[in-house]
Amino acid sequence: MELHDVWFVLIAVLWTGYFFLEGFDFGVGILTKLLARDRPERRVLINTIGPVWDGNEVWLLTAGGATFAAFPEWYATLFSGFYLPLLVILVCLIVRGVAFEYRAKRPEENWQRNWETAIFWTSLVPAFLWGVAFGNIVRGVKIDRNFEYVGGLLDLLNPYALLGGLVTLTLFTFHGAVFTALKTVGDIRVRARKLALKVGLVAAVVALAFLLWTQAHSGDGKSLVALVVAVAALVAALVANQAGREGWSFAWSGLTIVAAVAMLFLSLFPNVMPSTLEGDWSLTVTNASSSPYTLKIMTWCAAVATPLVLLYQGWTYWVFRKRIGTQHIADAAH
Amino acid sequence: MDLALAPETLARWQFGITTVYHFLFVPLTISLAALTAGLQTAWVRTEKEKYLRATKFWGKLFLINIAMGVVTGIVQEFQFGMNWSDYSRFVGDIFGAPLAFEALIAFFFESTFIGLWIFGWDKLPKRIHLACIWLVSIGTILSAYFILAANSWMQHPVGYRIDKVRGRAELTDFWAVLTQNTALSQAFHTLSAAFLTGGAFMVGIAAYHLARKRHVREMKTSLRLGLITVVIAGLLTAVSGDVLGKVMFKQQPMKMAAAEALWDGQAPAPFSVFAYGDVEKGHNSVAVEIPGLLSFLANDDFTSYVPGINDVDKMEQQKFGPGGYRPNIPVAFWGFRWMIGFGMASFAIGLAGLWLTRKRFMLPQHLRVGEDEAPHLVLFRNRPLGPKLTPWFWRVAIWTLAFPLIANSWGWIFTEMGRQPWAVYGVLQTRDAVSPGVSQGEVLTSMLVFTALYAVLAVVEVKLLAKYVKAGPPELTEADLNPPTKIGGDTRDADKPMAFSY
């Protein structure tokens, strides 16, 4: 395994970490409209992710930065090519971060309601668009001999990619509902489990269709294994959810995301961004990667930093392990 | 295509707008993290309540501010790929690495421990909670260092070679990129300016309350801390600015000649206080100059030769081929002056403030005040500032809050525009760095969207800051004074509301 292969795996790991972690916090954001009945319940939801959402989002920044450093051509083609969808995602992430931090800083009804609406939409839209983006990456897009994206915006909105969007949207919502059941107490916990079942079934159907399509389009033996794991884990998550085993259910829904992302990356390899115009114009781990020297330095950095990050982020989840309910939300807005 | 709307021009405007905006929050974040951590340390060590109230007060303003810094930083991470894809392809091998390091080492650090700090008041024992804010502070400084090392490489590329086959620059010595004198002096200068900014922020807000004799205990402490920060950081900013200037005179003589509107080389070279000239013809029609000072700034003596804009332009044409190598001279000239002027004005106000509010042992008996009284502003021994001048002092002290922010912005505008037409000095021109596949409409859209969004958020942010500034330090609760002894919180009452919730 050469260093650029290692970095392909590491980038996959970073995206997996991002979708696993921000997956449930996007889901929780969506549940503020689907599940919460009133403001105290919305606040319960928001506070389940309060201390951690920012750390979760850094997985995206790191995936972006690592792609820039390890595969500059991929970074350049992807972000200049998917320009407008990425712009929408950035706007959502900006507003979402501010919404979390500022919502409770004023008591006025309008102020709070507007930020809550913002949290819902800015969670829903990126949850959908990331699936669209990855659908397009796996399927391939119009890339010319200079590695420039030459398609238009509408090319990105093809049925396969849109289905991918529905997968991430429903899967993240399910993951968020399972997380809510695990992190809350009281009535909302019971309702989260019920909702998880419904959303989970929809997610299962959509995900199965998308993953089978992917397998048929660009799969191999390894990706098939990942597909089976993803589907089995989703079923297990639903079963555990029904049995009231919330911890297990969350672990399984997490594994579903891990396996699904793994499948996408497995069916992508050794390409990083295939061209639909001409096979030779595809970006691959070799023609898009940085020099061995840069990759070596980055590998050292990742080898030292990543375990530390997992350690202290894990510790944060442990510190805030207590379930919360409406009784834990103080009335005074501050 | 209309040149004013060329994708390159639009991409540059977008970069300028989003970066200057982002950098309004960055220096405040860096310095307020450390200053808040300092106040919290004082609380933990002395258990004086005023320190805890001050910690909560400044901590809140810090959080309102860092939220904006974080979200506007996301754009910074991605817009190289969006608007500057050819730049990314050409230098990603080098420039990407410090960005990835920044994310892996600094961003994770900051974001995780800030969450622990915000929500951890009733979840973490006192000292661990205090450690969290210090870790945030370390994270902000590390983050600054990596990104400044990346920027320094654009100012003065080192540790690389050009791979002709792949048509890109490749890293050969990462250590050189991280430790070259451009990076060291730029980090020194930027970090001291960051503390000048946070110090002035504290001075301004403390002055606002003290002028109204409100929250005197906390604000006197804050004023003192702010003034000392301003004076030390101001001094260091000046020293590091001189160091960085000397580095730049060697590495980018064009930028420094433009900063001085020095058209033709002179020995000794004068420092121009004011100049007005004809950029097309390449000379000044009006100039107020201090003889020999520029030679000193460049080379530490009052007689040596400093090359002018026209000389460097000719030199670069010989080296890099025909073309224009002059940046926008008026922007460089005035940007340089506004940077120094506003920064040093703030320093001077800090110095004056420190003298006027000096400690009681330096004052005669009748001018000393108790802990709950606003300080007298004492000019000379036995000579307090009169009733007319006193409100003016407080007013000026409030204004100083904005000065370093203006200075920082012009500093970056100067250093980035002064490097033009280069994106990477001597290696890649800005016009070759822009995304070829991104249309004019797309860049225009994103520029307008970001500008509008940032404008709205600026209003929201400033109003929120104003609200919390006016509210002053909060009253302390039982929970505040009895922090938990166990990690995860003392679980005597399972239904106790959280000390902090969104």
User: Unreliable runs of chain B, pLDDT <50, ≥5 residues?
Assistant: none
What is the radius of gyration of chain A?
20 Å
What is the terminal separation of chain A in angstroms?
53 Å
Tally of separate domains of chain A:
1
> What portion of residues of chain A belong to β-strands?
under 5%
Question: How confident is the prediction overall: mean pLDDT of chain A?
Answer: 94
The averaged pLDDT of chain B comes out at: 92
Largest sheet, spatial ordering of strands of chain B: 1-2
Name the overall outline of chain B: globular
One letter per element, helices H and strands E, the order of chain B comes to HHHHEEHHHHEEHHHEEHHEEHH
The H/E string of chain A reads HHHHHHHHHHHEEH
* Largest binding interface between chains: A-B, 79 and 78 residues
Helix content of chain B: 55-70%
Count of alpha and pi helical runs of chain A = 12
CATH superfamily of chain A: Formate dehydrogenase/DMSO reductase domain
Under the CATH scheme, which architecture of chain A would be assigned? Up-down Bundle
Largest sheet of chain A, in brief, is: 2 strands, antiparallel
Helix count, DSSP H or I runs of 4 or more residues of chain B: 15
Indicate the structural class of chain A.
mainly alpha
